[in-house]
Amino acid sequence: MEDVWIMDSGCSRHMTGHRKWFSSLNPVSTKEYITFGDNGQGKVMGVGSVSLSAKLSLREVAFVRNLRFNLVSVSQLLDEGFEVRFKKGACCILDAEETLVCSLLPFGQSFADIWKWHRRLGHLSFDLLVRLSSMGLIRGLPKLRAEKDLVCHPCHHGKMVAASHIPVSQVMTFYPGELLHMDTIGPARVASVSGKWYVLVVVDDFLRFSWVFSMEFKDETFGFVRDLVLRLRNESHKAMRAIRSDNGGEFRNSCFENFCRDLGLEHQFSSPYTPPQNDVVERKNRTLVEMARTMLDEHRTPRRFWAEAVNTACYIANRLFLRAFLGKTSYELRFGRQPSVKHLRAFGCRCFVLKKAGHLDKFESRCLDGIFLGYASNSRAFRVWILEAKQVVETCEVSFDETMPCTTPIFELSGDDEEGTPIFEDEEGVVNDGDAGATAPAAAPAPSRYEFDDEGGPPPLLPPHFPDKASSSERPDPPRTRGAFFFHSAYVASFEQRDVSHALSDPNWVNAMHEELENFERNHVWDLVEPPPNCRPIGTKWVFKNK
């Protein structure tokens, strides 16, 4: 939504969270906050002018931290002498001479859908997303179209790379399971919530299907590879020929040597410090880490959930990425049926888990607040971080709020949680050709409304964009805690009127009500008509809210 301005009749002033729009910007002398619809707040960093077109320049536009939308206030336009006309399918802004200075169009549903699926599918590129939707290879993915030059800030923060070079990888096999590429990533900058520091990535050369395993120590690599190889040998009637890795100590050891000799496998090694020779898994490493970092950045999810993000990225990639020469996804090539994405949800979004305690009070809340962290590996369930209990549960009794990230951060973030911060220490290129030491179970289960299809995965809008970073000379505000937020909400609630009878006793609220009614009359927002027969008119009420 960075390049879209929304006409808002309920907004008290023009505002944006993107610094680039301002032709002039002056800092504010006093602390001022804007209260959003979810009771979150954004600090007003400055006030300036914004040129929307050659004929329309907005004055007194507030630069608000954490605001994802660009809002044009109808009331402020009217105060500045403009006229706003709403028609079916359009909105026109006219000056005092009734000359058209700007027109706005409704925000298309298909445009909103492209952003929704972009976020659900781990910030997949818009071009690939549109191409996949037109090919009909994935169940549950509707036909999508994208406008030109769409920009997603979390994608830039999570996927910015150096200029690319000519790829050297090619398909070297003729059937699934013939050759497995493998590599480790890590150590991470922070331990995961389950105490993991490394990731093992394994890729099938023919299918490009991938597996990821989180590890506390690198010496766990052999156990995961052994179990995977034995499982794949049971799945296929064709023999596995070889595995390929770098020269790291986790691969070049007696355990691997004896295992490969017993099964008749060739263990191929890339030359030291020559990642292109293990290009298939190196590229997969970069893809998964970029997806994970982008998903973490979008909802400002702490870096300690990196393992959940990497698992989710792998889950999505297997269902979306095409084997170009076969015209099918890796999932379909392996399982013989098209993947479904109807159950996918945006990683890091708020969700609500049904309580299943034995004895609930009649007036007790029926759900727990949580954060969506991906999909269970061995059941048709979602993985959710329960905020109150501070633990991960797997459940299918869950509802999602994917609309937008909260304006008030859910977590108190540290320096390692800044946008674009690397997840792993050796993340530049995500190359690991040696053995690095490190120190430091997947999550606990719990409860289990969504229907799943036969795929075996859990069931089944605009993109948030974060404002540009403040200048280094600006002194940052101290971190805002949830306690401070609740204290502020309680304070504001103490002088907000509960009903009309209380408001009529306050001259300030009476004046505000008269002003609102005058705006209705001035803008001609209603027509008095006879109601149709057998129809009951909808009532109205006053809502008293400090904005």
TrEMBL record:
Superkingdom of the source species: Eukaryota
Biased composition (Acidic residues): 415-430
One Gene Ontology term of the molecular function aspect: nucleic acid binding
Composition skew (Basic and acidic residues), residue ranges: 466-479
GO biological process: DNA integration; proteolysis
SUPFAM superfamilies: Ribonuclease H-like
Signal peptide: none
Short name of one Pfam family: rve
Sequence ranges assigned to domain Integrase catalytic in this UniProt record: 172-338
Compositionally skewed regions (Low complexity) per UniProt: 436-447
InterPro entries assigned to the protein according to its UniProt record, in alphabetical order: GAG-pre-integrase_dom (IPR025724), Integrase_cat-core (IPR001584), PolX-like_BBD (IPR054722), Retrotran_Ty1/copia-like (IPR039537), RNaseH-like_sf (IPR012337), RNaseH_sf (IPR036397), SH3_retrovirus (IPR057670)
Region (Disordered): 415-479
Alphabetical UniProt keywords: Hydrolase, Protease
PANTHER family hit by this protein: CYSTEINE-RICH RLK (RECEPTOR-LIKE PROTEIN KINASE) 8, TRANSPOSASE, PUTATIVE-RELATED
Name of the molecule in the record: Integrase catalytic domain-containing protein
Organism: Paspalum notatum var. saurae
